[in-house]
Amino acid sequence: MVTEKDIEQFGKLCEEIFKQVSRDVIGQKEVVEGTIIAMIAGGNVLLEGVPGVGKTRLVRTLGRVFDLPFARIQFTPDLMPADVTGTNIIVKDEHGNSAFEFQPGPIFSNIILADEINRATPKTQSALLEAMQEHTVTVMGVSRKLAEPFFVLATQNPIEQDGTYPLPEAQMDRFMFKLLVPNPSLNELMQIVDMTQKTMAEVADTVCSGEQLLKMRETANQIPVAEEVLRYAMVLTSATHPDSECASEAAKKYVRVGASPRAGQALISAAKVKALIKGRFNVSYSDINELAAPVLRHRIKLNFEAVAERISADEIIKQIVEEVSANKNKYNR
Predict the structure, then answer these.
(1) Fewest CB within a 10 Å sphere: which of 60, 111, 188, 276?
(2) For the chain, what is the domain count?
(3) Taking the complete model, does pTM exceed 0.70, yes or no?
(4) What is the dihedral of CA 14, 152, 179, 303, to 10 degrees?
């Protein structure tokens, strides 16, 4: 049972986490909040933005703030699956006898930065699939459990398409959020340059351990969700399917394939964390609405009409949210 003291402690810890991250990352409030919500909820994050907007710096800072081992994997076309997961090597003992010994790869860390993930071949990208979903790594028939908490924070550049391999749907679906990292404003740019002239190193202090993070996740899991709010979140997920009983007009017109059940799970898990950050005991409709874009934007596939009219996934999601919000009483029994 979650007590008022638990919520107070949760809020204070989140406040300190945001404060320390802001020492190293200027602006990007929505991106920072989304990444921290996903980490507490136990999800993976895909950060999309042009080079130099602070994606890698944000991930390194989070490693410092949460005091968790951090590994950076630079994805390139020649990266092999064994370079990610590790492999068995032959070693000799003092008697000259040979034996296989497992050499763990960089994935055996708590925070994984998969830098420019769409530059690796599908075979290497798939090496992350099991780790992201099951938190295990299987090499030569032996499964090894990854240390908790475990997160994959991947980055990709939306502009360069040469020499890239778009992520398959199965892998995209394993990211709780897809966060768009915008270019900084003029004032933010001045602050960034001023800060990095003094030092390029991160200065954030550790305020939360891995154990505390897992306890925060446990607290969030116990937050109740009213049946009406749960139904609303599921209707919103279902409304992205053009052939669903709850299909929205926007989905019928612009969507080819809607969001998977994982989207519904992500909406509820993340909304619980968001409610706690706001100091509330329960999930509200506004929590669901605010999280709809990061949860759904990479899970819906647009049809030719949407592409021809140059309508983005975010615009379609906004229309779906407005339509479902206006008719929410219709779905309550």
Answers:
(1) 188
(2) 2
(3) yes
(4) -150
